[in-house]
Amino acid sequence: MKEKRVLIAQLNVLTPYRLRFYELLEERRPRWWTFDVVHDTDPDRAKQIFPVFVDPKSVGFPILPVRTFFLSRTRRDRVWQTFFLKARHYDLVVTDTYIKNLTYVAVTFWKILGKRRGYWGISGNRFLFPHEQGDLFLLSEKFKRSLFRISDIIFAYTNGEKRHFLELGIPESKIVVLNNTIDVHELHKDYMQLADERDGIRKRLGLEGRDVILYLGRLTKEKRLSLLLEAFKELVSFRPSAYLIIAGGGPEREKVEQFAKELGS
User: Fold this and answer.
1) Which residues of the chain have pLDDT under 70?
2) Residue 58: which residues within 8 A CB-CB, separation 6 or more?
3) Which of these three, 143, 177, 211, is where a domain ends?
4) Which of 136, 151, 177 is the C-terminal boundary of a domain?
């Protein structure tokens, strides 16, 4: 049997929370297929996409090095990457569903050579309120749904996402549920090992006896942080022992800091 080749591109660069998944994939994959993961190996460019740079020499799976070209002076998510021509040598190309990387759209062209096209992620951006959905947003979502319909396989994060894909008219035979690939068992072990350190942090921050809520992640509009902040504001009105810690970075940071000032903490 001829060896099959798979190309995977996710979030434009490698991210630390996906490394273990790729390592296990390399360790456990059948020997009749191989895979490469797209990664911009230049630290300066990669950090403009994701703040933590992954050194390609430190990972235990194959990488396809690419160069990223930023298409906007103000937005770092609108990009073109140099794997369009190389993608034609793979039997299957799987990308996430974030089509602001125009190469993700372009590689669909290789279906004319019989190459397979797959997507991995969510069915659409359902995190914006109606008044935030402009014409360009609605057009891009419609275009994205068209790409899904001509794809060969879709890896949905959850059963709920699978239902959303089905509602878009994607045949069930094309959808595979691949639960969001973070090694929660390893994270839980790390969490339990840090019990003493957690107690020390609580003491240092004066949070002993407080009900602490921790948000850890990107500070973007899609995360609906405004909903979290408003809910917390309601919570402290009848549970003053509650304390919210937000750790992360992103375009919504100033709004979060302003909220903290207004709340007096």
Assistant:
1) 126-133, 181-183, 265
2) none
3) 177
4) 177
- The answer to whether residue 50 sits within a structural domain is yes
Q: Which residue has the tokens 């790729």?
A: 22
Q: How many domains does the chain fold into?
A: 2
The helix/strand/coil state of 69 is: strand
Segments forming the whole domain that contains residue 226 = 195-263
- Dump pLDDT digits (tens) for 148-190: 999 999 999 899 999 999 999 999 999 999 887 666 777 788 8
Structural contact between residues 64 and 39, judged by C-beta atoms closer than 8 angstroms: yes
Residue 216 lies in a domain: yes
Buried b (16+ CB within 10 A) or exposed e, 141-178: beebeebbeebeebbbbeeebbeebeeeebeeebbeee
C-alpha closest to that of 20 among 184, 157, 177: 184
Decide: residue 66, CB within 10 A, 0-12 exposed, 13-18 middle, 19+ buried: buried
pTM for this predicted structure: 0.78
Instruction: Give pLDDT tens digits for 206-231.
Output: 998 899 999 988 888 778 888 899 99
Q: Is 110 left (phi over 0), alpha (psi -120 to 50) or beta?
A: alpha
Lookup: tokens for 132 = 């935030």
